[in-house]
Structures are given as C-alpha cells and as structure tokens.
Predict the 3D structure of the following.
Amino acid sequence: MKISSKGEYGLRALFDLTQHYKQRPRRSREIAEAQNIAEDYLNQLLITLRRAELINSLRGPQGGHELARDPRQITLYDALRVLEGEISFTDYAANMEPAPVDDVLNPVWQIIVQETIRILQETTLENLRERRESQEQELMYHI
C-alpha cells in the first residue's frame, strides 16, 4: 500500500484539527504553517474532507475548519478511503503470466491487506493525539 502526498497531508490536516478539537476553528493558513503544507494544496484537501463530512468549514471572521465528529469516531481508514480511494496493494503482477507460486502468495497478500485495513479501522484520530501527547511527556525533563 502506498500513501500519496494527498493521503499524508490530509492526515496531517486532520491531526492538526484533532489537536485543536473543541477550540476555535482553525484557519487554513494556521494548519498549513503548523503542518508544513502548501496552503493552496491544503485547501483542495479540506474541500475533499468537508464533502466527506469529516470536517466542517465555517465562513466569516471567526471562521475556519473543525472536525465534524469527535476524534474518537474518525478512523485512519475513514480518512484514507476519502483521500486515497479503496485500500489495496498495487497489482504489480497484473501484466505478468500467472505462476504456480501465485496460489501460495495471493492468500498471503490478502491477509496483509486485511490486517492493514483492520489496523486502520482500529486507529482513531484520538489515538494519534494520545500517542503524540505520550511522546511529548517522555521528552519532558524534570529538574
């Protein structure tokens, strides 16, 4: 499975909104600067995420973007399906002649895909926030 810049940057944007959940809406510029994403590209991703009802976008001077649901209810699978399409591995052998080993390998590839999907479905944006918070606490030095 390959994650494109669309998937990577879309997850960065969602993570940023997770870190600011229940605060004021975040402007595109703030997200772009914090996550090192070109603002024009980010705006395209935010439109995709809004259409998929993962985020809400508010207009006006107090406007910006926010998660549409609690981060515990949004999985990486939800986000990547919107950003990348159906989760699968590249069929690199599509143009190759079938080989006897395919009967053995194909079930292994299927297990890998199923496990990858399971992990993505079990990992929420809140899980990512908790991991980040845990890492930051480990880095704290006490005098």
Summary: Residues 132 and 138 are 10 Å apart (CA to CA). Strands lie at 55-58, 64-67.
